[in-house]
């Protein structure tokens, strides 16, 4: 193909791969195409420093395009001592050369205390032709940092020019800061308002996702198919990171997938590299976990119901705190867990008695076994706060009034009677609130009313009404400045949530107490200026325990995490029995975390709603705390006793059968080790040949 070069009449042949000089810069020819005017368009990638990695298209009738002819190369003698200039030039070329091996070159030099276990995901991914991996380490081990290490290595290899990070809106600022401050990876935050601003600045047919090369965006913003679907399909990135990936697993109901799952499937084909992060990647169902694996590699699992560990082990990394403890040497101070007992007041006892004696007609007609009895829902909300229970009553009364204005069933009158009893519980009669005040003021707790900017408190509660109650009354009773206590819930915009998280981790901000719903329980780093966490209400799910506690009990915490549970003591036998079940949950979670790393194995549900149903069924059936505790363990019938020995534990063979369709079977390789570990002395444990948790499969069902 002929090209003209300025005033020269000769025409020379150009082809992809040649180097050319255009506008004083050196370029690499990618493509040469004729146009309708009889001229040619030359697509190039910049080589010289000023235009490196830039792409451009030049027209031969407008620009002078001069091939770089190796024959015309002029050699210059190096007259420096010992050829120092030549050595320096060669060294600079070597440093600029992209690595092609699987070794870590730059990720371990980030602004962090690099630990060996944090490099494993990057090494595993780099050993693959395409870097697609699920980093499924337990809460608090630093999955964000592990993702940053891999991203840094890919950028070094020139595979990370365009990056998209998809995360929860509350996590955007934190993820953005981690990437910039530790790895100097600049991510532009595209919240809802910024996308609208970009659209107003670019032509109507332009793609807003092409405006910046490296962006971070909320999954709830991006999942809007009508607004962004076409733009996503027209975009391509070098790296896509999906945080909290358990939320994008396909759990299709009647063939209909959730918006988040549809978004993840769409993104899976829009990049070479896909990094998924999740501390709880499985929900006990084979098909759900298989959907994540198929996003990483569509050829891995032809049958999402029939596969074993060996089919997917190259696509994920999963470790627990106990697996890496030998490498961190003091980076995980042992947490202190305390139950704060609160004796119910007379007003509370009156409400408890009314609730337990109340019989609702609507519950007698309840036929769906998978839904709460409304009476249980009332008890759950009352365990949060009287304000939350009153809100639950008001909403149900409105619904009942629309159906039966005459209240033939009498349920409305009964609910109004309970509401009247609840309204008698003021702040002075609210035992858990008074115990919270006493705790915050006590010398033993040592908080000193928030005088130390490095000593902040996180208070978790499930209900928004409880959150609002605590924020209002704590500010008054502790005489705190208006900005010293803030709250956070899922109803806030992405900008508002990001601002609160950023301020809570900034020493100069006036915040001393953060009262949060469980929207803050996933992924957020709240440990920089806080080692105190209070569960004002006790979760009914072991997974929620893990997520909440992991906000302060995580890698990088310098002080001993202090975790408190506000527990009710009542003379009402039913209430006391139910609170005892919640105490068992807390105790089992703490013990399982120490013994097996993943407390969610005890219920085997791997889903927050299903775990809450497990607890709800125990409460509704009147099950004793002892029986409930006995069920929170791995059943004896699932143990292969041939693998147990009297003293030590033998290594489990790698070729043992792993059936993802059965939870009990999937645990079979793990159970003998765990049971025998409980019976083994510390000296015996030191001699164990059993594999670590990292070598075991993710439990599937």
Detailed description of the structure:
It is a single chain. This protein is of the alpha/beta class and 701 residues long. It contains 26 helices and 20 strands. It has a 7-stranded parallel β-sheet, sandwiched between helices. Strands 15-20-19-16-18-17 form a 6-stranded parallel β-sheet, sandwiched between helices. Helix 3 packs across helix 4 (172-183) and helix 15 runs antiparallel to helix 18 (464-477).
Model regions low in confidence, pLDDT < 50 over at least 5 residues: 1-11, 635-701
Strand order of the largest sheet: 10-11-9-12-13-8-14
> What's the overall geometry?
elongated
**Helix/strand class:** alpha/beta
Distance between the termini: 61 Å
Beta-strand level of the residues, as a percent range?
5-15%
In round numbers, the mean pLDDT is: 81
Radius of gyration: 30 Å
H/I helix tally = 26
Major sheet description: 7 strands, parallel
Could you give a short description of this structure?
The chain is 38% helix and 15% strand.
What is the secondary structure topology, with strand pairs?
Layout: E1 2-5, E2 8-13, E3 19-22, E4 25-34, E5 40-46, E6 55-59, E7 66-67, H1 84-96, H2 116-126, E8 132-135, H3 143-156, E9 163-167, H4 172-183, E10 188-189, H5 192-201, E11 214-218, H6 219-222, H7 225-233, E12 237-242, H8 259-268, E13 271-277, H9 286-296, H10 309-312, E14 316-317, H11 321-328, E15 336-343, H12 346-357, H13 361-364, H14 374-384, H15 386-403, H16 411-423, H17 431-441, E16 456-460, H18 464-477, E17 485-488, H19 494-504, E18 513-516, E19 530-535, H20 542-549, E20 562-569, H21 573-595, H22 608-620, H23 625-631, H24 663-666, H25 671-679, H26 682-686
Parallel strand pairs: 8-13, 8-14, 9-11, 9-12, 10-11, 12-13, 15-20, 16-18, 16-19, 17-18, 19-20
Antiparallel strand pairs: 1-2, 3-4, 3-7, 4-5, 5-6
Helix pairs in contact: 2-3, 3-4, 12-16, 14-15, 15-16, 15-18
């Amino acid at each position: 193909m002929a090209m003209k070069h300025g005033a020269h009449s000769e025409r020379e042949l150009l082809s992809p791969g040649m180097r050319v000089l255009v506008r004083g810069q050196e370029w690499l020819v990618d493509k040469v195409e004729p146009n309708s005017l009889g001229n040619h368009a030359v697509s190039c990638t910049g080589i010289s420093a000023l235009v490196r990695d830039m792409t451009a298209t030049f027209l031969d009738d407008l620009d002078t395009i001069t091939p770089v002819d190796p024959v015309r190369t002029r050699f210059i003698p190096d007259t420096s001592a010992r050829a120092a200039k030549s050595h320096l030039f060669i060294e600079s070329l070597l440093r600029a050369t992209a690595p092609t091996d699987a070794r870590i070159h730059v990720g371990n030099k980030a602004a962090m205390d690099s630990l060996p276990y944090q490099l494993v995901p990057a090494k595993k991914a780099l050993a693959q032709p395409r870097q697609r991996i699920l980093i499924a380490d337990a809460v608090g081990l630093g999955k964000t940092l592990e993702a940053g290490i891999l991203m840094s290595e890919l950028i070094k290899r020139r595979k990370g020019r365009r990056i998209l990070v998809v995360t929860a809106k509350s996590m955007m600022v934190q993820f953005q800061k981690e990437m910039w401050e530790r790895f100097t990876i600049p991510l532009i935050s595209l919240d809802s308002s910024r996308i609208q601003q970009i659209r107003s600045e670019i032509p109507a047919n332009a793609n807003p996702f092409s405006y910046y090369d490296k962006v971070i965006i909320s999954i709830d913003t991006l999942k809007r198919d009508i607004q962004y679907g076409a733009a996503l399909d027209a975009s391509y990135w070098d790296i896509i990171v999906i945080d909290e990936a358990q939320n994008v697993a396909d759990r299709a109901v009647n063939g209909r997938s959730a918006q988040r799952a549809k978004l993840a499937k769409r993104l899976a084909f829009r990049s070479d590299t896909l990094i998924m992060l999740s501390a709880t990647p499985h929900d006990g169902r084979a098909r759900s976990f298989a959907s994540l694996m198929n996003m990483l590699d569509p050829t891995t699992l032809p049958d999402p119901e029939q596969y074993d560990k060996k089919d997917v082990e190259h696509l994920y990394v999963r470790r627990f705190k106990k697996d890496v403890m030998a490498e961190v040497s003091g980076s995980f101070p042992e947490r202190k867990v305390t139950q704060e007992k609160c004796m119910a007041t007379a007003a509370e006892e009156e409400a408890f008695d009314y609730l337990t004696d109340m019989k609702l007609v609507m519950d007698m007609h309840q036929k769906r076994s998978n839904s709460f009895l409304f009476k249980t829902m009332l008890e759950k909300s009352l365990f949060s706060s009287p304000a939350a229970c009153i809100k639950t009553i008001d909403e149900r009364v409105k619904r009942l009034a629309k159906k039966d204005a005459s209240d033939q069933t009498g349920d409305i009158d009964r609910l109004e009677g309970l509401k009247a009893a609840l309204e008698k519980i003021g702040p002075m009669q609210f035992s858990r609130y008074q115990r919270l005040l006493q705790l915050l003021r006590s010398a033993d707790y040592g908080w000193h009313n928030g005088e130390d900017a490095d000593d902040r408190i996180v208070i978790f509660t499930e209900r928004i009404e409880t959150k609002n109650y605590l924020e209002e009354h704590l500010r008054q009773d502790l005489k705190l400045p208006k900005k010293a206590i803030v709250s956070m819930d899922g109803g806030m915009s992405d900008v508002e949530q990001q601002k609160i998280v950023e301020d809570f981790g900034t020493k100069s901000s006036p915040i001393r107490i953060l009262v949060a719903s469980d929207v803050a329980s996933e992924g957020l780093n709240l440990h920089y200026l806080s080692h105190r966490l209070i569960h004002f209400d006790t979760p009914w799910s072991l997974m929620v325990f893990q997520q909440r506690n992991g906000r302060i009990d995580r890698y990088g915490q310098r002080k001993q995490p202090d975790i408190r549970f506000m527990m009710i003591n009542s003379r009402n036998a039913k209430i006391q029995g139910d609170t005892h079940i919640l105490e068992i949950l807390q105790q089992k979670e703490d013990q399982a975390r120490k013994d097996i790393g993943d407390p969610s194995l005890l219920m085997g549900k791997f889903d927050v709603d299903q775990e809450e149903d497990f607890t709800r069924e125990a409460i509704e059936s009147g099950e004793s705390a002892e029986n409930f505790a006995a069920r929170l363990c791995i059943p004896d019938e699932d143990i292969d006793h041939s693998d147990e020995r009297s003293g030590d534990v033998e290594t489990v063979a790698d070729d043992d059968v792993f059936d993802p369709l059965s939870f009990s079977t999937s645990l079979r390789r793990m159970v003998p080790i765990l049971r025998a570990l409980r019976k083994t002395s510390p000296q015996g444990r030191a001699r164990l040949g059993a594999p670590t948790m990292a070598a075991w499969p993710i439990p599937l069902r």
